[in-house]
Write a structure and sequence with these properties.
Strand order of the largest sheet: 2-3-1-4-5
CATH class: Alpha Beta
Number of strands: 7
Distance between the termini: 41 Å
CATH topology: Rossmann fold
Number of helices: 11
Largest sheet: 5 strands, parallel
Shape: globular
Helix content: 40-55%
Length: about 280
């Protein structure tokens, strides 16, 4: 059995990645830790560049070597080549050792917000690590994220929707770009839910035992407004955008990413908001 970590990377929040996290963890072979955006941490804008200069921070370690404390040091940072090995060690100390302490031989992390630098880091730090990309139809994701609650999570509902469209598009494009890379598996949420054969196949692909369906067959919802457990959740009909959401549709249609959203949707085999293509 492989000991390489498994990273579950969602196309966006509300794609069902938490359920995939539970599915894989239920095998007893891997503990997939939850999202904290921890994988994005090393990619701030201020690290010193090994080659060239960081345009966002000219006050680099190379400059410090020449000027010492005569320079402005408020944002002085080590080289990125120093940061990444240290960060790899920190993640292994934090997640791998604690997973083994809890009785799991493998470890992983689930994230809903990530970028290409994250993939580069994962491939460099753990070349044999498995990346499970979870995608879902935009309409179902949008309804799950926005229609159940009209509470604004950012500045305004419009800003929230535009930011969500951007994330769903950009992370979807990255998944398409890397879908044929070694150790990458793309799963559509719709193809897994309620299909135990495909769930078992995913686990076999990752060199895991079969899932314990007693642990992961029930939908568990948690939010400030909803905390519940629902049996047989795969049989429930999804929400759909309707006339009450016409204001939201206008925002979606006006997104600067709209054309790209259609292309991403088509590439994953989805109809776009009830229309073909």
């Amino acid at each position: 059995m492989s000991k390489a970590p498994i990273f579950v990377l969602a196309q966006a929040p509300r794609t069902g990645s938490t359920w995939v996290q539970r599915l894989l963890t239920s095998t007893g072979d891997v503990l997939i830790w939850g999202e904290t955006s921890v994988l994005l941490y090393p990619y701030g804008d201020l690290w010193s560049y090994d080659d060239g200069e960081n345009p966002d921070n000219p006050h680099s370690l190379k400059k410090f070597r020449k000027q010492k404390a005569r320079m402005w040091m408020a944002v002085l940072q080590p080289f990125l080549s120093d940061v990444l090995p240290a960060y790899k060690t920190m993640l292994e100390e934090l997640y791998e050792k604690t997973a083994k302490r809890e009785g799991f031989p493998r470890w992983g992390v689930k994230e809903t917000r990530w970028n290409e630098k994250v993939l580069d880091f994962l491939n460099e730090a753990w070349p044999d690590s498995e990346k499970v990309f979870v995608v879902r139809d935009f309409e179902k994701v949008f309804c799950s994220r926005f229609k159940a609650s009209r509470v604004t999570q950012g500045r305004t509902r419009r800003a929230d929707i535009l930011e969500f469209c951007s994330m769903w598009t950009e992370q979807g494009e990255l998944i398409l770009k890397h879908q044929n890379d070694p150790h990458c598996i793309v799963v559509r949420h719709e193809d897994l839910v309620g299909r135990r054969g495909r769930q078992k196949k995913l686990c076999r692909q990752l060199e895991l035992n079969e899932p314990d369906f007693d642990q992961c067959d029930k939908k568990i919802s948690w939010s400030p407004h909803v905390r519940k457990i629902e049996p047989n959740w795969e049989r429930k009909k999804p929400n759909h955008l309707d006339l009450q959401a016409r204001d939201d549709l206008e925002i979606i249609n006006g997104s600067p990413h709209y054309a790209r959203m259609l292309e991403v949707s088509k590439a994953f085999g989805y109809e776009w908001l009830g229309e073909e293509g």
